[in-house]
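Renewal narrative, Specific Aim 1. Our central claim is that a sequence can be written position by position from structural information alone. The example that follows is taken directly from our test logs and has not been curated for this report. It begins with the structure tokens describing the chain, in the order in which they were read.
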């Protein structure tokens, strides 16, 4: 068990931090909502009612969809775009899908290559794109969930204000929807771009996200 925890520490640690953050968001969110309700003379709501509400769902899904968009774009962009000197980029002469030798495919397969890499045909073609496909699919699903939850929350506010509800397509044309969506997207693009350029000139000893401390600024794709 100790060896399992050691070998999977990164995934387990971030999984735990994710759950703790989500629970914290739920408690902080219901407290914030109830503060507003009490100030308006309304009854407070329970935690269970809050976490099953459209307002909680839209806040969660908006963040998830922007995170998956970030990774989806980064996975594909780094195939064709490089940043000289960045630990997050491959070397300029490797731009593109790379050869079978560089990707350990065909006659260059290794003894421990995954079964789908060995299979050839459609399975190998799909496996070769599986990371980007999964990230793109998760982005589309969370974006759709975000839009539906936001639509429900928007219509609740419309009804409380004695205004007509709008259709889902109508909601997608609302400035509020795109304001919330682009607010999340721009922060993710800033974070990725910052990491790409900062890793050219800055170091974090021992981290695979950084070049070795003594590596030259122009060294590209090296990790410590």
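The sequence written for that structure reads:
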């Amino acid at each position: 068990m100790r060896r399992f925890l050691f070998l999977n520490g990164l995934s387990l640690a971030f999984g735990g931090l994710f759950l703790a953050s989500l629970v914290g968001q739920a408690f902080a969110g219901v407290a914030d909502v109830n503060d507003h309700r009490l100030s308006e003379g309304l009854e407070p709501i329970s935690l269970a009612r809050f976490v099953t509400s459209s307002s909680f769902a839209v806040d969660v899904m908006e963040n998830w969809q922007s995170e998956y968009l970030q990774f989806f774009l980064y996975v594909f962009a780094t195939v064709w775009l490089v940043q000289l000197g960045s630990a997050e980029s491959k070397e300029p002469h490797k731009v593109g899908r790379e050869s079978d030798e560089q990707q350990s495919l065909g006659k260059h397969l290794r003894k421990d290559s995954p079964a789908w890499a060995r299979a050839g045909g459609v399975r190998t073609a799909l496996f070769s794109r599986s990371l980007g496909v999964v990230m793109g699919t998760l982005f589309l699903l969370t974006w759709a969930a975000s839009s539906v939850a936001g639509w429900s929350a928007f219509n609740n506010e419309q009804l409380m204000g004695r205004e007509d509800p709008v259709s889902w397509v109508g909601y997608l044309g609302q400035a509020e929807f795109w304001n919330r969506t682009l607010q999340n997207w721009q922060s993710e693009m800033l974070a990725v771009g910052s990491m790409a350029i900062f890793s050219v000139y800055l170091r974090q000893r021992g981290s695979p996200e950084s070049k070795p401390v003594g590596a030259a600024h122009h060294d590209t794709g090296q990790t410590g």
